[in-house]
Design the sequence.
């Protein structure tokens, strides 16, 4: 496993127990600089736990995590990391879009200093980048689910991170919003940003993914190109490990094969 | 009105009220955001233990109350962070332990529980020059921290996990917020009183959120409401000879109740500016009601007013809104 400066994220042999139950069992994951990795798996497979552990939000019982070559414990360069959680209390209302996004500028700012001109420009740019320039002063609670998700993406982008971690950014979001997100991610990746994205369905993001890591029951069941998943499914006996039923896009009547498994199974 | 300013005790009471009105909402907004609206109540009870201790030792009550209150707040916050006590259990321990200790200690000191009333509901005549100096000094500290660290405190209060991924020292900021809330509660005992100060930390925030949009605007509006009600209540209590705490809190609640119809009017006005004919109540219409046969194709410049609605555009058509969906239009 690469542990030099060109590795954005390196998790090795991670074991995490929650409430005494093992959720991750010896999981290793690395993301090279500029690489886009999709983290796939069924409900309860440990995807969100892995993401939250590598960001230091959950303790791990065994293994190591390094961000940009530095151990997670004592890591201080948080401005290099952007995080888009699945849900956020910040979306419950009482804040304007620009206020929520400004919170993403926290890491590079010093205490007792007002927003600089550079901060303000970065906030406006990030909001414009996700297509919400018109909603700058709107209460976040008044936005649609897809727009709220984009607010969280803007909040993660505003610090110009080198590694962007997104936890199911497409769940419950219609296809149009997924396409907007795909465009935003494509732009970031062309600028060299590394991406770790948890997905239930690949959908429009499929074309951007360099590598897919599939978790099953807290273990890595597949780590390789997205296209190899079909072969993998046959090897692991299919549905019991990997199938999640119909994808969101399928339910919308989309026939583009956007389920991550379905897409991978396309000839 | 001018005559009350000629009394030195009223000058001191008014300055103390003004400062309390400033700081209670400034820290209260973070307490409310963390859904700990009753924290101030629990801290008020702990401050009472400090008052009891001061009565027993014959020292000035405010400094002892500040120390007791901050110590209690930090202990409960640390227990909460370590998972030893949930938020509500921690608050309950504060409530009962503080109140019992306050009454017990004042009893031993010979003052008795009745002597605590002036601290529970405020008193116009009890603000001393030393009290005022301490209140002024600590109010400046609280304002500098709450306004200077506003981005950090906001981030931690609205999304703790995200703030952690930004490198924010979340635990430290939580302790800062509860400590400043504790200081505010202890300082407010001369004006609003320990039992009612929590209301001044919560009610102006609730009213401000009805009236304005966004966190910063709510903070400014809440401080304005806090100052108005604290000073207004203090003046009012002089004329009707009542405890100022009750008057201040009733005024704040009156403003909160007025904020409902006002917010409704404000929303209607904003909606009317965009959508003159329509009621801004989307729940009246089913989320997916298909229009009848509609041969007209809506598009920008088609002659119908276009209105941004969430993530799409509606077109106003004979008093209702049409939204394009697949091969038909939905009623929105």
Sequence:
């Amino acid at each position: 496993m690469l542990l030099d400066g060109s590795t954005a994220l390196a998790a090795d042999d991670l074991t995490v127990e929650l409430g005494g139950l093992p959720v991750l069992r010896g999981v290793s994951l690395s993301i090279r600089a500029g690489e886009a990795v999709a983290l796939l798996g069924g409900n309860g497979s440990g995807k969100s736990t892995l993401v939250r552990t590598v960001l230091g939000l959950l303790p791990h019982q065994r293994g190591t995590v390094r961000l940009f070559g530095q151990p997670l414990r004592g890591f201080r360069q948080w401005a290099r990391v952007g995080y888009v959680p699945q849900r956020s209390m910040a979306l419950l209302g009482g804040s304007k879009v620009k206020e929520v996004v400004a919170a993403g500028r926290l890491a590079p700012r010093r205490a007792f200093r007002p927003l600089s001109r550079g901060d303000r420009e970065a906030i406006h740019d990030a909001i414009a980048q996700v297509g919400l320039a018109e909603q700058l002063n709107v209460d976040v609670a008044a936005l649609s689910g897809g727009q709220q998700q984009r607010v969280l993406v803007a909040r993660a982008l505003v610090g110009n991170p080198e590694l962007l971690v997104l936890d199911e950014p497409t769940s419950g979001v219609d296809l149009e919003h997924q396409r907007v997100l795909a465009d935003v991610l494509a732009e970031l990746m062309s600028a060299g940003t590394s991406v770790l994205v948890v997905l239930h369905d690949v959908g429009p993001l499929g074309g951007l993914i360099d590598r897919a890591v599939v978790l099953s029951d807290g273990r890595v069941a597949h780590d390789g190109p997205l296209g190899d998943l079909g072969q993998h499914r046959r090897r692991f006996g299919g549905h019991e490990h990997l199938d999640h039923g119909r994808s969101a896009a399928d339910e919308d009547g989309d026939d583009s094969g956007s389920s991550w498994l379905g897409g991978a199974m396309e000839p | 009105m001018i005559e009350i300013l000629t009394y030195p005790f009223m000058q001191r009471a008014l300055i103390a009220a003004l400062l309390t009105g400033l700081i209670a909402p400034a820290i209260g907004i973070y307490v409310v955001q963390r859904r700990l609206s009753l924290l101030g109540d629990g801290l008020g009870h702990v401050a009472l233990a400090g008052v009891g201790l001061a009565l027993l030792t014959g020292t000035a009550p405010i400094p002892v109350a500040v120390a007791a209150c901050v110590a209690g707040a930090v202990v409960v916050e640390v227990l909460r962070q370590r998972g030893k006590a949930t938020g509500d259990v921690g608050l309950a321990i504060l409530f009962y332990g503080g109140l019992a200790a306050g009454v017990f200690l004042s009893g031993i000191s010979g003052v008795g529980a009745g002597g605590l009333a002036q601290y529970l509901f405020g008193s116009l005549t009890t603000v001393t020059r030393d009290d005022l100096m301490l209140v002024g000094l600590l109010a400046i500290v609280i304002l500098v921290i709450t306004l200077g660290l506003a981005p950090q405190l906001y981030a931690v209060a609205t999304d703790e996990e995200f703030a952690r991924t930004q490198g924010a020292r979340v635990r430290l900021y939580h302790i800062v917020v509860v400590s400043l809330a504790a200081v505010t509660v202890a300082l407010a005992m001369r004006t609003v009183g320990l039992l009612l100060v929590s209301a001044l930390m919560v009610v102006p925030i609730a009213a401000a959120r009805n009236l304005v949009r966004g966190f910063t605007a709510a903070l400014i509006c809440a401080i304005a409401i806090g100052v108005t009600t604290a000073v207004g209540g203090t003046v009012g209590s002089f004329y009707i000879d009542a405890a100022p705490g009750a008057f201040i809190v009733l005024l704040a609640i009156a403003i909160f109740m007025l904020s409902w119809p006002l917010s409704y009017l404000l929303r209607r006005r904003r909606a009317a500016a965009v959508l003159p004919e329509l009621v801004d109540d989307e729940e009246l219409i089913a989320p997916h009601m298909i229009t009848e046969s509609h041969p007209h194709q809506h598009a920008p410049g088609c002659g119908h007013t276009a209105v941004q609605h969430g993530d799409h555009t509606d077109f106003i058509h004979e008093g209702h809104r049409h939204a394009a969906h697949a091969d038909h239009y939905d009623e929105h």
Observations:
- Chain A has a mean pLDDT of 83.
- Chain A touches chain B through 40 residues (CB under 8 Å).
